[in-house]
Amino acid sequence: MEEIDITLRADGIQKKVISPGEGELSTFPNGTKVKFHYRTSLCDGTVLDDSRTMGGCSKPMELILGKKFKLPVWERVVTTMREGEIAEFTCDVKHTALYPLVSLSLRNISHGKDPLEGQRHCCGIAQVHSHHSMGHPDLDKLQANPQPLVFALEMLEVLPPGSFQLEVWAMTDEEKLQVIPQMHEEGNALFKSGDISAASEKYYSAIACLKNLQMKERPGDDHWIKLDLMITPLLLNYCQCKHLLGQYYEVLDHCSSIINKYEDNVKAYFKRGKAHAAVWNEAEARSDFAKVIELDPSLETSVAKELRAMEDRIREKQKEEKGRYKNLFSYSSKASAAASTG
């Protein structure tokens, strides 16, 4: 271990063991999967990220060694740890310059967003030197002024190659394209079984996978468009799930993004119309439903059903509001009468 520590220090990494862990140190061949919790801090103790609290839940980091993770220093330091070990690594700036981009992706994932949201279509180094805000003041500050960071890691599990099923994020581009139809079918099966939340997650994973591939293409090129046409039906299915889960404004955002690119997508208009109706946007709902009939007159019966449902909800809402106002007026009258006789 002393030899490892000397090698680390020579490369600008200082290791402090908090708890030594158990068993023999793995040789960590390429393809090894490691699971660990992490807490990232500035040298003054300010915490930037903590996998135990990020996104309101505790989710450990998973890395497959040899897959060229954006933050190579993490691959370097985990190979010095035993299962159960807890250690702090203070790393020089040369190892931490790309951390703001990695942190942004991890934060996006923890909140159910596209991992690449907020990142420009350029290489990591170019983004580090750009003035584009990442949407997080602490990351903007760190990007403008790179500095050493302290990574506190707890090694939970070390899995040798071949002992686990490869996850999508660890696949090659070709493997990702091959697995998308399977993920689509799995999402459909979960939806049909009534597990809407799990179906939503499956569709989201497939969308994120395709968007990751799309980021490598020039917007508008043939392959970019081909990937976008694969994303669209998955995104519509995702919107269906989100509608059933009551997340109507997310449906509005996604359907609008589809319509902005594909003005004749009748399903996007139909789902957006239903979402508008759900949040009492009557005029917008009627406009979208009218567009649905214009694009596909065979859906007139379905549209009429949605319009009747919306109108019934509006009448019921107006009736409830009228009752509340009536009770309020009645209470006010009684209060005035009591005051005049008191």
Automatic annotation (TrEMBL):
Enzymatic reactions: [protein]-peptidylproline (omega=180) = [protein]-peptidylproline (omega=0)
Molecular functions (GO terms): peptidyl-prolyl cis-trans isomerase activity
Pfam families per UniProt: PPIase_AIP
EC top class named in words: isomerase
Domain PPIase FKBP-type: 31-85
Main location: cytoplasm
Compartments where found: Cytoplasm
GO cellular component, one term: cytoplasm
Keyword annotations: Cytoplasm, Isomerase, Phosphoprotein, Repeat, Rotamase, TPR repeat
Free-text function comment from the UniProt entry: May play a positive role in AHR-mediated (aromatic hydrocarbon receptor) signaling, possibly by influencing its receptivity for ligand and/or its nuclear targeting.
Self-association and partners: Interacts with RET in the pituitary gland; this interaction prevents the formation of the AIP-survivin complex.
Protein name (record): peptidylprolyl isomerase
Organism: Onychostoma macrolepis
